[in-house]
Amino acid sequence: MSLIVCLPGDGIGPEVLDQAVRVLEQLPVDVEVKRLPFGGAAIDEHGEPLPAETLEACRAARGVLLGAVGGPRWDGASVRPEQGLLGLRKALDVYANLRPAKQGDVDLMVVRELVGGLYFGARGTLEDGTVFDTCEYHPTQVERLVRRGFELARGRRHSLVSVDKANVLDTSRLWRRIVDAVALDYEDVTVRHALVDSFAMELVTNPQAIDVVVTENMFGDILSDIAAAVTGGLGLAASASLGEGGPGIFEPVHGSAPDIAGTGRANPAAMLRSLSLLLQHALDREDLATAVSDAVDETLVSHPTHDLGGSTSTTAFGDAVLASLSRRLALKEEPWIPVPS
């Protein structure tokens, strides 16, 4: 039996996570689901965003499903929910953040380095008031991320673009040298380099031409959100954060949306798409991952939520996804999922 740790988090996090758990528990996979406090909810309950019990369980899990963290009640506090998220990523060493963006003829994947760079470098304030944040990368950090990108490109359309700022930054020049060296092992993949500013424009004006993108932490943070906006918005975007053999973190990239928490208006599509990524990367069930993804796509059309101009509630969306899954799996003569009443 595989342990799946569920971290509901804050705001709409528990509501959208509930729908993912409903679907997971109806699928033909042998899993144990364990919910634990995280983020702001953990601060309120335990005084810290990543309690030791939560971290221990995540380390022992096959995968981690995360709802959302943060909210105005913790803004400006010395201990913030986001600190728990950064700490969890670092502790699990999930260095590769996969951000798929797909709609119509656009089908691209941003592969963002997640545990290095500006967000984890030295920082501080000097006596004269100067504030600094340091962007640091070791060659091995870059190489493992780049190899992950090449492997993904090899399984897709054999095209990879590496995004940097090599005309200004030494870290980017290191990045570019390593990409060129690793590319020698992947002669079947077409490789090119792009500067982050011009590539941001390309991402908006010609996303159809892009297959796999590899880039460092901050650039990836920004570019993956642009890719999400081009393909429907952050409310629909999922992510998988993966390491080497250990548990991955699977989460929607939208915020905790405290203004609609408890209203039933949250769209769980991104959370369900994150479940699809968990099925693919943590449980090795590509078949079920595809079924869930297709069911979500169908439901977005047939049962649009409030943010998409419809009126489907969070729970009703989950009902519709389960019904779609039941039909899809029944077509394969595997009638595991009952149609919700």
Tell me about the largest β-sheet.
Answer: 10 strands, mixed
Q: What fraction strand?
A: 15-25%
Q: Which outline best applies?
A: globular
What is the level 1 CATH name of the largest domain? Alpha Beta
Low-confidence stretches: 333-341
The counted number of beta strands is 12
Q: Mean pLDDT, rounded to whole units?
A: 94
Instruction: Look at the helices and sheets and give the structural class.
Output: alpha/beta
CATH topology of the largest domain: Isopropylmalate Dehydrogenase
| SS element count, helices | 11
Summarize the structure.
The chain is 42% helix and 20% strand. The chain is built from 11 helices and 12 strands.
Features:
globular, alpha/beta, Isopropylmalate Dehydrogenase, single chain, 10-stranded mixed β-sheet, 2 domains, two-stranded antiparallel sheet
